[in-house]
Amino acid sequence: MSNYVASTFTSGETPTTSQWNQLWINDAAFNTALTGTQTISPFTMTTPVWQYLGYAQITSNFTGAATSFSVVTGLSVAVTIPSGVTNVKVTVGGAYMTISATAGNLALLDIYDVTGSAEVGGVQTSTPTNGYFMNPNFISPIAAPAAGSRTYELRYSQNSAGTFTLAATSTNPAFILVECC
Fold first, then answer.
1. Residue 166 and residue 136: Cα distance in Å, rounded?
2. Total-model pTM
3. pLDDT value at position 77?
4. Does the pLDDT at position 55 exceed 90?
5. Would you call 20 helix, strand, or coil by DSSP?
6. Does residue 84 or residue 27 have the better pLDDT?
7. How many CB atoms sit inside 10 A of residue 106's CB?
8. How confident is the prediction for the chain on average, in pLDDT?
9. How far lies 142's CA from each of 30, 56, 87, 145, 172, in Å?
10. Which residues pair with residue 139 across a beta bridge?
11. Is residue 142 exposed (0-12), middle (13-18) or buried (19+ Cβ within 10 Å)?
12. Sequence-separated (6 or more) residues with CB below 8 Å from residue 108
């Protein structure tokens, strides 16, 4: 890489012709240096490749008043887990949650495996004094279910009477996404 010259560019800067030429020379020098058998790093990392299995979304607010776990209507998805899959990731999210109850009360979101009758993961959040909080509410637990048909759903609960709202719009939906690797 004897022709390589370190260069610095400023964000938004338009490179001059000589800078473009040097970038091409650097690229050629780098590619030439990597011919034959080369070791780029002392180890190889493999990143899991997640594959889509299922998705559901709602585009308008969900409201409820349950003080025990209840399904968020529209956020349930049936999938088929392929044989040989070692992990399943279930991700849920929404714009924000609100609770009309007193400060300090709890809002709970829970991903539930209906087929396996088991909780996959969840989050618990305290209500501030005004009952409203911005929170991305993303949950991404990873499970290792057996191959076959499964249904996952998002459930909610709160620890006292009041109205629970999971906000969703057409541009910021609440969703449940199931992926495997």
1. 10
2. 0.68
3. 95
4. yes
5. helix
6. 84
7. 14
8. 77
9. 39, 18, 6, 10, 24
10. 92
11. middle
12. 69, 122, 123, 124, 125, 156, 157, 158, 159
